[in-house]
Amino acid sequence: AYSDARGLQCIRVHVAEYIERRDGGIASHADDIILVAGASDGIRAALKLFKGEMKGKKSSVMIPVPQFPLYAATLEEYDMHQIHYYLKESKGWSLDTAELRRAVQVARFHSSPR
């Protein structure tokens, strides 16, 4: 028999317990956890979920600038459009909602933001 594709149940239970302790008692459930062989495999698996066209337009995914190079390489490999949004260096590389809106508006002309 095959093991659970999400990872061993006993390990996912321990991970859920750790997350719950770390987050001050906010519930975490083993069934909501998927174990992967490193961050790169996890990122690739997550981005693959968005692959494909929608209404004749390529899928697109928002990625921050600066970014982890794996995002751009994986999106290129999956033939997906990158929506770059810029983080505010002057505010500790924080997000700016106006910048996110701008990036989505620009992307809508040539892709399908997901």
Automatic annotation (TrEMBL):
Cofactor(s) recorded for this entry are: pyridoxal 5'-phosphate
* Superkingdom of the organism of origin: Eukaryota
Report the EC number(s), separated by commas if there are several.
2.6.1.2
Drop me one GO molecular function for this one: L-alanine:2-oxoglutarate aminotransferase activity
Task: Please give one Pfam family short name.
Answer: Aminotran_1_2
Annotated catalysed reactions: L-alanine + 2-oxoglutarate = pyruvate + L-glutamate
Task: Quote the pathway field.
Answer: Amino-acid degradation; L-alanine degradation via transaminase pathway; pyruvate from L-alanine: step 1/1
Aminotransferase class I/classII large domain residues: 2-105
- Record keywords: Aminotransferase, Pyridoxal phosphate, Transferase
What binding partners and quaternary form does the record give? Homodimer.
**The protein, known as:** alanine transaminase
Q: Which organism is it from?
A: Allacma fusca
